[in-house]
């Protein structure tokens, strides 16, 4: 028996005990009030109430245990048939009658007489009916609630698995995107500066190793990401030289915070893709952290007419990742003072 199954069984028994006590008070308390109303002796009435309450609680609890095996309320996905309910009603009613008969017979010391004036058989039949009805009604409600909760949990599990699958798919899209742009840069470098191609390949190898390793992680530390950015900036500075200016202002105390892998690289790549980078118009990119535990990447807007070739999934992909991780409205994009600004939250370790 699994730990989960044992916990469910324990919870059912505890719940059944509380319900049995509630059923006992529901049935016996009106009789106590009736006894006081008729002017009965308070001590005798309380003793009868206490003993009758205990009997009703015991009988009700035993019926909960019985129907645990008959109706099986904690078994999800088990289809409840009409004859299961009929069989439960008949068996519960019969068992309640037999238990009440045996207990009251023992209480009044008459084991062989079914009819005796000293025993309130009309009240016992009344109690039998209501105990049976309340127990079965409670069990059916418990079964309904458990099934609804199980369906809800399964839907949440399926939703979470779908989001995880979608997240992994999005992460896997980033590496080909980065590789595409890196190979484009390498192609240009080989033709324009073949002597630097070897160093470029070495740094490209380090960067690709990081992208492959990061695909196995949902999040990386800001420290890991910044070390990768050092290699990445070497690659793009080889291509753009002094035409690309990147300023870093990252608080060392935030290096243990986490972000999705390749976040900063994607934002830098997006800025280069959509803006002119030339001697006449050098592109300036600022990367900084804030006291509000966020990372800001901003650049001067200087649109170019001929955009770089690419897969067109970078920024939208990153936005989707943050939505999956943290929900909507956590990833902000704005334009101010001719600057394109992206602010992403840093996730506490």
Number of helices: 8
Please report the total strand number as a whole number: 7
Overall spatial form:
rod-shaped
Q: Please indicate the percent range of residues in DSSP E strands (runs of 2 or more).
A: 5-15%
Reported for the largest beta sheet, the result is: 5 strands, mixed
Order of helices and strands: HHHHHEHEEHEEHEE
Q: Could you name the ranges where pLDDT drops below 50 across 5 or more consecutive residues?
A: 111-118
Q: Which percent bin holds the helix content?
A: 55-70%
End-to-end C-alpha gap = 36 Å
State the assembly state of the protein chains: single chain
Radius of gyration: 37 Å
If you average the pLDDT, what whole number results? Answer: 77
Class per helix and strand makeup: alpha+beta
Relevant terms:
349 residues; single chain; 8 helices; alpha+beta
Structural write-up:
The chain is α+β, with helices and mostly antiparallel strands and 349 residues long. 64% of the residues lie in helices and 10% in strands. It is built from eight helices and seven strands. The chain has helices spanning 3-37, 42-70, 82-108, 121-192, 197-214, 222-240, 263-274, 314-326; strands spanning 220-221, 244-249, 258-259, 283-289, 294-300, 332-336, 339-345. Strands 2-4-5-7-6 form a five-stranded mixed beta sheet, covered by helices on one side. Strands 1-3 form a two-stranded antiparallel ribbon. The longest helix has 72 residues, at 121-192. The protein starts with a helix and ends with a strand.
């Amino acid at each position: 028996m699994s730990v989960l199954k044992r916990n469910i069984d324990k919870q059912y028994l505890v719940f059944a005990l509380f319900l049995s006590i509630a059923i006992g008070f529901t049935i016996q308390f009106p009789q106590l009030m009736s006894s006081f109303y008729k002017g009965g002796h308070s001590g005798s009435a309380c003793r009868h109430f206490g003993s009758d309450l205990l009997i009703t609680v015991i009988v009700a609890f035993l019926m909960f245990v019985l129907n645990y095996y008959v109706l099986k309320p904690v078994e999800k996905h088990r289809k409840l048939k009409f004859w299961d309910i009929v069989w439960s009603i008949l068996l519960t009613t019969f068992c309640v009658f037999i238990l009440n008969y045996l207990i009251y017979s023992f209480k009044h010391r008459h084991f062989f007489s079914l009819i005796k004036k000293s025993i309130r058989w009309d009240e016992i039949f009344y109690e039998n009916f209501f105990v049976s009805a309340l127990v079965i009604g409670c069990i059916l409600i418990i079964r309904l609630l458990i099934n609804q909760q199980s369906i809800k949990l399964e839907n949440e599990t399926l939703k979470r698995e779908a989001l995880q699958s979608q997240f992994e798919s999005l992460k896997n899209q980033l590496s080909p995107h980065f590789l595409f742009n890196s190979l484009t840069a390498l192609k240009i470098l080989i033709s324009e500066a073949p002597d630097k191609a070897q160093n470029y390949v070495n740094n490209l190898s380090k960067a690709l190793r990081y992208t492959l390793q990061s695909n196995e992680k949902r999040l990386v530390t800001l420290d890991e990401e910044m070390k990768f950015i050092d290699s990445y900036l070497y690659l793009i500075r080889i291509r753009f030289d002094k035409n690309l200016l990147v300023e870093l202002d990252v608080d060392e105390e935030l290096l243990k915070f986490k972000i999705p892998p390749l976040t900063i690289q994607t934002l830098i790549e997006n800025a280069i893709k959509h803006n002119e980078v030339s001697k006449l118009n050098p592109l300036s990119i600022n990367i900084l952290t804030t006291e509000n535990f966020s990372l800001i990447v901003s650049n001067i807007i200087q649109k170019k007419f001929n955009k770089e070739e690419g897969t067109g999934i970078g920024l939208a992909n990153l936005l989707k990742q943050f939505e999956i991780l943290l929900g909507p409205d956590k990833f902000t994009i704005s334009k101010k003072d001719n600057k394109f600004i992206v602010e992403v939250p840093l996730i506490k370790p």
